[in-house]
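re: ur question from yesterday

yeah so i grabbed the chain u mentioned. its 253 aa long if i counted rite. heres the sequnce exactly as i have it in my notes:
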Amino acid sequence: MTASKPSKEGNSAMENVIPDPKKNMSGALLKALLLVVFIVSAILVIRYTPVREYLTAEALGRFLETAGLWAPVVFMFVYAIGVSLFIPGTLLTGLGAAIFGPYWGFVYVWFGAMMGASLSFFIGRTLGRDFAAQLVGDRLKTYDDAIERNGFATVLYLRLVYFPFTPMNFGMGLTKVRFWDYFFGTGLGIMVGTFIFTFFIGTLKEVWASGNWGELLSFKVFFSIGLFIFSFFIPKIIKKIKGEEPSAEGAAS
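ran it thru and got these structure tokens back, copy pasting raw so excuse formatting
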């Protein structure tokens, strides 16, 4: 009894089911090139166009005045788009604190930062993840899988040690980390540093605006300065605490 030859229709169906590795790689490479073009273009736009002229408290403040009651919402969108275009987060945070004060400035900056972090993550995930997955070898795959399993803790740690904000947003999109692990790890991880910086800048701006230089000797000012100085030691404290924890290999053995 002879085996029947597969029909042309069957071969055609199998070709439709089995993905073409070369086609997948070329598509991933194209998206990765788009990501590179986006990043380079964003940096060039910020550095060599009139956009730079709006990156002062006075200029941005005048722009937000035109938005009226919607100014906080507009600022949050400006922050989100700004960090996605590689405007330094510290600059935008300082502007938010100077315009809105130490407390509302913190609220608006935090929401803007979360929007920007999410936007950058999705850009990196959409355009770069496929290409990154093609390049991951056996050794890197181990780390990639570990980030997927321990996404929240990994993101939280990197945020607490002040890993550069925007590069990390895009970079995490290239990994297997789950979005919600990334989102909540970011939200909690940037909270302390954001509050300290906005409180410090906002407090000094209030004293400057009031013209009452005697307030420089107030408890609030000294407290803000103390918090600001303390913020520089947070990464070392976190690293020391993490270094004292048992390693994953030791815990598993």
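noticed a couple things. Confidence is low (pLDDT under 50) at residues 12-18, 246-253. also The chain has 14 helices and no strands.
anyway ttyl
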